[in-house]
Amino acid sequence: xxxxxxxxxxxxxxxxxxxxxxxxxxxxxxxxxxxxxxxxxxxxxxxxxxxxxxxxxxxxxxxxxxxxxxxxxxxxxxxxxxxxxxxxxxxxxxxxxxxxxxxxxxxxxxxxxxxxxxxxxxxxxxxxxxxxxxxxxxxxxxxxxxxxxxxxxxxxxxxxxxxxxxxxxxxxxxxxxxxxxxxxxxxxxxxxxxxxxxxxxxxxxxxxxxxxxxxxxxxxxxxxxxxxxxxx
Amino acid sequence: xxxxxxxxxxxxxxxxxxxxxxxxxxxxxxxxxxxxxxxxxxxxxxxxxxxxxxxxxxxxxxxxxxxxxxxxxxxxxxxxxxxxxxxxxxxxxxxxxxxxxxxxxxxxxxxxxxxxxxxxxxxxxxxxxxxxxxxxxxxxxxxxxxxxxxxxxxxxxxxxxxxxxxxxxxxxxxxxxxxxxxxxxxxxxxxxxxxxxxxxxxxxxxxxxxxxxxxxxxxxxxxxxxxxxxxx
Lengths: 232, 232
Description:
Order of helices and strands of chain A: EHEHHEHHEHHEHHEHEH
Radius of gyration of chain A: 17 Å
Largest interface: A-B, 38 and 38 residues
Strand order of the largest sheet of chain A: 5-4-6-7
Number of helices of chain A: 11
Largest sheet of chain A: 4 strands, parallel
Low-confidence stretches of chain A: none
Structural class of chain A: alpha/beta
Distance between the termini of chain A: 21 Å
Number of strands of chain A: 7
Helix content of chain A: 40-55%
Oligomer: homodimer
């Protein structure tokens, strides 16, 4: 049976949410039927968006290396990173360990194409996720278009993530609706919630049907790849 | 700054709840102000009540040793175990590592005496917690009386923990009220919820004022001993 490793704490709230979702979606009726997991909740990890936008990523990669190697040493058989932005560093992180790391953005795009027949995918995430093109590359590889919010709407997304959720407040759902409306108006047939803070918003305050949560896909992959049955 | 180690997964739901509570009660407004934590969610840990009642605890102690030592190796400065029953093995677990392990039952009793002036404390927990006298010893050391439910009411507590919460169902609050009423009738001036599954019940479905949650006390101790500010 597999053991799931988690490089988490980015932010801690999102990792706790991921942990709860893994438990809720594992087909189990007693403790011992659940997954064994090791969660490194590295709240002190340098800010990912800042590292990407400034190129100042040495310390961040050092910590990622330590965490990945610790999870390998502890016998983890699969690694999940419940933070979309961090996947900018996916190739480096995977190079630090022989344990397979789930690529959340690729899995989310693949899910949007497979289950919704999406051809034009909108992405809501941090500036780091959007500007670095993590999702644009995943979409390109899948042969679909990627649409990101206009600068004004992207500022709304950042405000929801940093000023609302990460600071422990409810999301401004008026801003959330403005972003969704713009992406739909620009022809998106699916919108990926590409930031774990937005998954928290969706759970607590809801989100339109057109939104597909990258976290949901990560949860399912983490359970299935660890040899457990996923309960939708 | 401290790093909190958690021996968890007993059950996973309770550990996820503990993790969320630590985040919610840490005075922080951005990721980097939160605690660094390592959570070993060892769902496959043998059942604690079973180990205590049968004396068959070799495998359980082996796993506890591995987890405690892994947390020490990863630089944890304090260890929390969000499972009351496991504290039956407290002395052994503490002997496996030089990192201080928080004693949840002692801290909970001390809190009941300090903040409520309790002289007669009722305890709701698993058969393992109740029959092993973990709380009875903590009460004795604090110079107060310990009252446990009658066999019929203790069966109600076990049913709430195993058939309801651990199996993913809501608690039968009629049974919960029967237990509380009995303990109050027998003169208890405080009732300690001494099982993390009951903390989950309290959060989701509520509990009378007379109930004091051992988990709350563990959360505060974990935050404060890791050098962060506790936010009530």
